[in-house]
């Protein structure tokens, strides 16, 4: 925080911090109480911000919640990229490709099984019946979807010029979304781990890096 | 209907028909208006049934909507089994295994992309925040999940005694669920078809029936 303070005025900092608190409270509120229990007033209270200040940042309920889901999605995917590039550097080029793929699949699936996904799910489902919300959430979902796909391709080192690879990665992201849904009502972690382990093996085979694949080490 | 009429009294028939109309109206209502717009009164009106008659069949809102999703899920999976056993008979044992797998994957994915899935999704998401609904929907989801898995294993002719096969089929069902979610706000059919085609190929390879697999014909 110190470094930022030196280049911005304290007023701008406060405004930025308020906005940040509102966005995080909005995601937590959506995840816990769903769309019908999530209003600007409830979020302002949770964030310890006056209703007027909240409305200064986000004039409508739709503004607040779509911005919140987008903000947290961006933060999460930046954290994911950082984590995995750090991990790649530690393991170096000698890591078993299977281990790397599994770590990537685990990290992608983790994006869809936390409070952010739960919040996004409430927003998507509400948008399917609310005309005011639908176009904004549809556009947001398309942006997040494209970004997730780009990220997954990069992390897996997948070559999309090979026929079928694009659809393989898309199917993986659909599976991650389905695993997120499966965890909505019950703790599905043990089953999910086994599915992730198996589908990481399948991905390595399909992307040509498993035992016998062109990019694999072939002896484990 | 004729055959049923001979073994039941007309009063039982009317009661059965009323119940059926209520269940179907409940699913359509959930899919269109979500949980917050779905009450016993709205469904009774839609089904052309008095509110009293509706409450005779389903004392609470939770009774009505969980029974509705369960009923339609059973009908859909019975129809799927019938359709695919008919198709199997037509194609016979000489059909390319890839074609059969793709038909099965398409049929399973279709279960998750229609109004039933949309209705179930509204119910699940509502249950995640409503204590009255949660235990019933959790139990219902577990029953539907087990039945879907059993059905998928049977239709794919998958041998679950082989390590990894169980998780392969589970991952496929998770993917189908994710594809259902992707179709909530936009028409995702073209992308979905390509993902299904690719993942049917991957499944054939993984289950050992693709070109080069132990059960395949190996020359196409």
From TrEMBL, chains A, B:
MF GO annotations: DNA-binding transcription factor activity; transcription cis-regulatory region binding
Keywords annotated in UniProt: DNA-binding
Occurrences of domain HTH tetR-type (ranges): 16-76
Taxonomy, superkingdom: Bacteria
Gene3D superfamilies in the cross-refs: Tetracycline Repressor, domain 2
Pfam family, one: TetR_N
Cross-referenced InterPro entries: Homeodomain-like_sf, HTH-type_TetR-like_transc_reg, HTH_TetR
Residue ranges the UniProt entry marks as DNA-binding: 39-58
Family annotation (PANTHER family): HTH-TYPE TRANSCRIPTIONAL REGULATOR PKSA, HTH-TYPE TRANSCRIPTIONAL REGULATOR RUTR
Protein name per the record: TetR/AcrR family transcriptional regulator
